[in-house]
Amino acid sequence: MDTFTPTAKTTVDANALVYEAADDFRVHGAVYTDEQIFNTEMRDIFGKCWIFIGHESEVRNPGDFKTSFMGRRPVVMSRDEHGEIHVFLNRCRHRGSVVCREERGSVKRFQCQYHGWVYGLDGTLQGVAKHKGGYPDDLDKSRFGLMSVPRVEIYRGLVFANMDADAITFLAYLGAAKPFLDIHLDRAPDGEVEVVQGAHRTEYRGNWKFQAENSTDGYHGDTVHESFFKLVAEFGNKGGQHGAYTQGDLDEIFAHRMTGRTLGFENGHGIWESPLSPDAADNMKAGPFADYVDWLEGKYGTQSMHEMLNAMNLLIFPSLAVLHGQFRVIRPISVDRTEVAMHFFKLKGASEAYNDFRLSGYQRFFGPASFGSPDDVEIFAFNQTGLQAEEVEWLLLSRGMARETFDNLGVRVAESTDETPQRAFHRAWKAHMGA
Ligand code: FES
Ligand SMILES: [Fe+2]
């Protein structure tokens, strides 16, 4: 017997959990606290959507591997002897143990640590420990290779995988959000980025969607990150996001932060964008990285140069955020436990000094001893605690609905503090959970 089909597929009534009317958008608290809903997400979202596995530069040479997760499923990405990239379920075909335990490394083959079965870099079963006598001599090893994730697509070095063999292509899934991913990559003079090995990891006691929503949330910054902006007001932030926020006055900084925009895309992706402060490009031109800004202006023109220097956070539904030089990977562990891994990337072709400058700006806001991310994850744990008061059923995500418009591609556009990306996220969530 090769397959077992559970008798009853659990269903979740997504229509009762995400409510939308002309001027009202609400998400039920159970969406963040209910275990059955979480289990359904693992099947209907993390089993159906394109999930970021890593970047090609993390498995540069044959034998290199990196482990990751698609929802709760452990997976391993490897580069075989022929240079081809594979993504497998990281589960031994004997009795199910994880085959590859390390976060990353380089090997000739994978050996399960339980009973010693050996798999090739392409996932084929190569050896069964103490085979003779224990199994038929002609055991068909081709039936017991590591199971491949059905779909793998690589876009400009980013490796995405999908458990759904019938899924639309990654680029169709990305849709109108593609130019925004391109901007992050086009900032590199060589047109490619390179992940710096290792990641900042943090775990919080809260649902994974809090971090997904927050990655494009322009509403929380002035409160959650007030201490950061006070420091910027006092000392400036010339080492920050391309020298943004150079004003010396807190009110001016907050007023400037209102000048950005938010976008919501069809498949749940979202954008929060905040322009440079008016003098930031000039500051850069007068500083040590003038070459980089000149290159950007020469290649893309003055207006695009300004746009490409903007702070721009892109969430690719459901669990990858690309922002400020990092791939931020959100990993749901349980309904109230989440890991966030932040992988900083260099711009290939930019000077070491400029990449170091970017890295220090990233560390200042996102690193473990920084002014930004630790404050965010603290909030997520408080959110989870607040939701234990179940008598209040709904979370409100209607901010800015009345001023939301559509651009010519059908993308929803609103102001920088509006909950447009979060609504796009939950519309897609609802569509998947009802499927
Ligand atoms: S579980 Fe892997 S060899 Fe037994
Ligand atoms: Fe934040």
Describe the secondary-structure layout.
Blueprint: E1 18-21, E2 24-28, H1 30-33, H2 35-44, E3 51-55, E4 64-70, E5 73-79, E6 85-89, E7 104-106, E8 110-111, E9 118-119, E10 125-127, E11 151-155, E12 158-162, H3 170-174, H4 178-186, E13 193-195, E14 200-204, H5 208-214, H6 221-224, H7 226-235, H8 250-257, E15 261-264, E16 270-274, H9 280-286, H10 290-300, H11 302-309, E17 311-316, E18 320-323, E19 326-334, E20 337-347, H12 352-366, H13 373-386, E21 394-396, E22 405-406, E23 412-415, H14 420-433
Antiparallel strand pairs: 1-2, 2-21, 3-12, 4-5, 4-7, 5-6, 8-9, 9-10, 11-12, 13-20, 14-20, 15-16, 15-23, 16-17, 17-18, 18-19, 19-20, 22-23
Helix pairs in contact: 9-10, 10-11
What does this structure look like?
With 435 residues, this protein is α+β, with helices and mostly antiparallel strands. The chain has 2 domains: 60-150, Rieske Iron-sulfur Protein, CATH 2.102.10; 175-433, Alpha-Beta Complex (Naphthalene 1,2-dioxygenase Alpha Subunit, Chain A, domain 1), CATH 3.90.380.10. It has 14 helices and 23 strands. The protein has helices at residues 30-33, 35-44, 170-174, 178-186, 208-214, 221-224, 226-235, 250-257, 280-286, 290-300, 302-309, 352-366, 373-386, 420-433; strands at residues 18-21, 24-28, 51-55, 64-70, 73-79, 85-89, 104-106, 110-111, 118-119, 125-127, 151-155, 158-162, 193-195, 200-204, 261-264, 270-274, 311-316, 320-323, 326-334, 337-347, 394-396, 405-406, 412-415. The strands form 5 sheets. Strands 13, 14, 15, 16, 17, 18, 19, 20, 22 and 23 form a 10-stranded antiparallel sheet that branches. Helix 9 crosses helix 10 and helix 10 (290-300) packs across helix 11. The longest helix has 15 residues, at 352-366. It is globular. The model has no long low-confidence stretch (mean pLDDT 92). The structure holds FE2/S2 (inorganic) cluster and fe (ii) ion. Fe (ii) ion (FE2) is lined by residues 214, 220-221, 224-225, 372, 376.
